[in-house]
Amino acid sequence: MKVAILDGIKNLEIKDSKKPVPKNDEVLIKVAYVGICGSDVHYYEHGRIGDFIVDSPLILGHECSGEIIEVGSEVKKYTIGDKVVVEPGYGCNTCDFCKKGQYNLCDKMTFMATPPIDGAFAEYITYKEDMLFSLPESMSLLEGALIEPLAIGIYAASKGKVQPNQKVLIQGAGCIGLVSMMACMAYGTKNITITDVLDVRLQKASDLGAKKVVNIANETLDENNFDVVIDCVGLEGTMKTSIDHSKKGATIVLVGMGSDSDIKVNINRAISKELQFQTIFRYKNIFDIAIKLVEEKQIDLKSIVSNIFDFSDIKNAFNYVIKHRDKVTKAVIKM
Question: Are 335 and 312 within 8 A, CB to CB?
Fold first, then answer.
């Protein structure tokens, strides 16, 4: 089979590899679509994200869907021909975090496309049946590949305890900002302001229903008293904005990891406003909820896709995303 191997910074090549064989509790999936995540681009461009370093050849990609073409002898929930979404991480199932359902915090977490674990930019992958989710007939495999980022947005909205008619600020109108906005709308609020520095992203947010968009590169955010702030950027400036523009007693949800250095904040101001801080790391127990919201037409995932590239053009796809950040909201690889 063909796989895309990252073997050094910006050295991404399609190569031949042995087709995997599923273990007894695994299925073999013919991959259909894989989203290009910001983490994939970061590994491609810089070779690392924080302490995660690409020091050996790695297959990127973790936002994926496909069709089952073979099942292991112990697989009970799935059969050949089933269309599925892959939740790309699973824990050890024995530690305290896993037993409490907080498997996203498992110290032994296995997560696709996180060194040294290979990802989904491959014609075929094997995966455990426990972390697969069936796609309803009404949903496409393209939508299935976008369930993973949507899960982050839903988790962020749930951590913020977003309620109908609340006033919400979302910082960052990239893919995660957009799905967070869509999740908040599904939770019942349409009073959403979203910020970014790229007009194409803000236009997409406006098209999808944002009440107000602000290009903070040349505009001032003149509103205050937000009930919930979801920071999908993670820089010192956005942290300051979160604190300054929240109402007293508001909830700030920290999603983005945009800074590798310490961030200085006015903690006294946060204390005087009795702000509630929440953080999220990936997601947990969200995929079934995400699929249901898309199936019920409460969220239109296709609307965030700006570019679809063929697998044979994957290196150009990554370079295009880097070079044309002002044109891309979400790029997807068709396998």
Answer: no
* Burial (Cβ within 10 Å: 0-12, 13-18, ≥19) of residue 89: buried
Residues 223-239: pLDDT tens digits? 999 999 999 999 999 99
> What is the crossing angle of helices 147-159 and 287-295, to 10°?
100
Task: Residue 80: give its domain's CATH number.
Answer: 3.90.180.10
Cα angle: 302, vertex 305, 311; to 5 degrees = 110
- Say how many C-beta atoms besides its own lie within 10 A of residue 34's C-beta: 31
Angle of helix 199-207 relative to helix 175-186, nearest 10 degrees? Answer: 20
Regarding whether 200 and 181 lie in a shared domain, the answer is yes
Looking at the predicted structure, is the pLDDT value of residue 7 above 80? yes
Beta strand residue intervals within 176-260, DSSP E: 192-196, 212-215, 226-231, 246-254
Tens digits of per-residue pLDDT, 141-195? Answer: 999 999 999 999 999 999 999 999 899 999 999 999 999 999 999 999 999 999 9
| Long-range contacts of residues 312-315, Cβ cutoff 8 Å, at least 24 apart | 312/14, 314/4, 314/12, 314/14, 314/121, 315/4, 315/12, 315/13
| CA–CA separation, 229 and 240 (whole Å) | 11
In CATH, what number is assigned to the domain containing residue 192? 3.40.50.720
SS3 content of the chain, % helix, strand, coil (to 5): 30, 25, 45
pTM, rounded to two decimals: 0.95
Whether 275 is covered by a domain: the verdict is: yes
Q: Answer whether 92's CB lies under 8 Å from 86's CB.
A: no
The pair phi, psi for residue 226, each rounded to 5°, is -75, 140
- Tell me how many domains the chain contains: 2
